[in-house]
């Protein structure tokens, strides 16, 4: 779900207007055989806490067509908005909708206009959005977008250790020098000094539509159920994906930011060894030893 669809939905619900939804039936098409080019389509509920669907799908089709190929979808607003699927639908009380991300980026276009390419990860999440309806980027597709990038263009990546080695192993093109896509490790102050994208957060990740970060010397995350980021007691580091510009193709900063250097390095070491600690998470807070404590929007890690 993109911002334009969310705004339309809110306005119409509040006005009491009703639009007829279209029901798209599941096709009998099979996913690509193992070893053949494929994309991945995942659907979850509650900020990734419950996995509802996880399928390999053929690239070269829209996200909406891929979705229709694996489950029944109830659509509205000309077929570009998912009204309901997998037993969950849009609601005004509490405000709840389906949102989708491709390689960690909130899609700037509707699902019918977003094309899947080989290696892409399209993640649908059904969640409440009161207090923070739009989240621009999530870490839950790691190591994307650093392997396949945005729009199918394999990017060049600048990365700090130990993330550089982990990204090379995953197939990323890690090179020296400034890059649009980068993975950085350090304290909040050090990252602000090194990287414009982190500096632009200006200590207020919620205002930048990010699910976590560091504010006033504390690690903050979206609280359980959603909303503006709040302090996580005991947390010493956070992993968050920060957009570098207005479009996914502008690049991104994957930041492992700590209240101190050792905490940041410990969290980065955990991610390098156990990348699954980020899978289907919006952002993740870590303790001083680098162990995940909580994921944004969830009560646990």
Overview of the molecule:
The protein is of the alpha+beta class and 301 residues long. It folds into two domains: 3-128, Ferric Hydroxamate Uptake Protein, Chain A, domain 1; 156-295, no CATH class. It is 18% helix and 31% strand. The protein contains six helices and 20 strands. It has helices at residues 3-15, 63-68, 163-170, 188-194, 196-201, 261-273, and strands at 22-24, 39-45, 50-57, 73-76, 81-85, 88-89, 91-92, 95-102, 105-106, 121-128, 156-159, 173-174, 181-187, 212-215, 218-221, 230-231, 237-243, 252-258, 284-286, 292-295. It has a seven-stranded mixed beta sheet with strand order 12-11-13-18-17-19-20. Strands 2, 3, 7, 8, 9 and 10 form a six-stranded mixed beta sheet that branches. Strands 1-4-5-6 form a four-stranded antiparallel beta sheet, with no helix packed on it. Helix 3 (163-170) packs parallel to helix 6. The longest helix is centred in the N-terminal third of the chain and has 13 residues, at 3-15. It is globular. Mean pLDDT is 90; it is low at 1-22 and 24-28.
Brief summary of the model shown:
By secondary structure, the chain is of the alpha+beta class. The chain is 18% helix and 31% strand.
Topology:
Layout: H1 3-15, E1 22-24, E2 39-45, E3 50-57, H2 63-68, E4 73-76, E5 81-85, E6 88-89, E7 91-92, E8 95-102, E9 105-106, E10 121-128, E11 156-159, H3 163-170, E12 173-174, E13 181-187, H4 188-194, H5 196-201, E14 212-215, E15 218-221, E16 230-231, E17 237-243, E18 252-258, H6 261-273, E19 284-286, E20 292-295
Parallel strand pairs: 2-10, 11-12, 11-13, 13-18
Antiparallel strand pairs: 1-4, 2-3, 4-5, 5-6, 7-8, 8-9, 8-10, 14-15, 15-16, 17-18, 17-19, 19-20
């Amino acid at each position: 779900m993109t911002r334009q669809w969310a705004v339309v939905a809110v306005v119409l619900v509040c006005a009491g207007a009703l639009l007829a939804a279209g029901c798209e039936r599941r096709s009998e098409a099979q996913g690509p055989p193992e070893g053949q080019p494929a994309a991945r389509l995942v659907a979850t509920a509650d900020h990734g806490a419950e996995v509802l669907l996880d399928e390999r799908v053929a690239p070269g089709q829209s996200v909406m067509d891929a979705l229709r190929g694996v489950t029944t979808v109830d659509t509205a607003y000309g077929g570009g908005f998912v009204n309901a699927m997998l037993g969950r639908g849009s609601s005004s009380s509490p405000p709840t909708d389906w949102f989708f991300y491709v390689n960690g980026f909130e899609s700037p276009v509707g699902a019918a206009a977003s094309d899947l390419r080989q290696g892409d990860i399209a993640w649908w999440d059904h969640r409440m959005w009161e207090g923070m309806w739009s989240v621009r980027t999530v870490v839950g597709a790691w190591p994307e977008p650093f392997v396949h990038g945005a729009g199918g263009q394999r990017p060049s990546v600048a990365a700090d250790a130990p993330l550089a080695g982990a990204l090379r192993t995953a197939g990323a093109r890690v090179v020296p020098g400034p890059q649009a896509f980068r993975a950085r490790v350090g304290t909040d102050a050090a990252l602000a000094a090194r990287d414009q994208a982190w500096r632009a957060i200006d200590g207020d990740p919620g205002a930048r539509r990010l699910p976590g970060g560091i504010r006033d010397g504390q690690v903050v995350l979206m609280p359980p159920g959603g909303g503006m980021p709040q302090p996580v007691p005991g947390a010493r580091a956070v992993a968050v994906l920060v957009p570098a510009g207005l479009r996914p193709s502008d690049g991104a900063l994957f930041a492992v930011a700590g209240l101190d250097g050792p905490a940041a390095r410990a969290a980065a070491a955990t991610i390098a060894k156990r990348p699954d600690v980020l899978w289907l998470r919006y952002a993740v807070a870590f303790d001083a030893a680098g162990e995940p404590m909580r994921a944004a929007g969830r009560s646990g890690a």
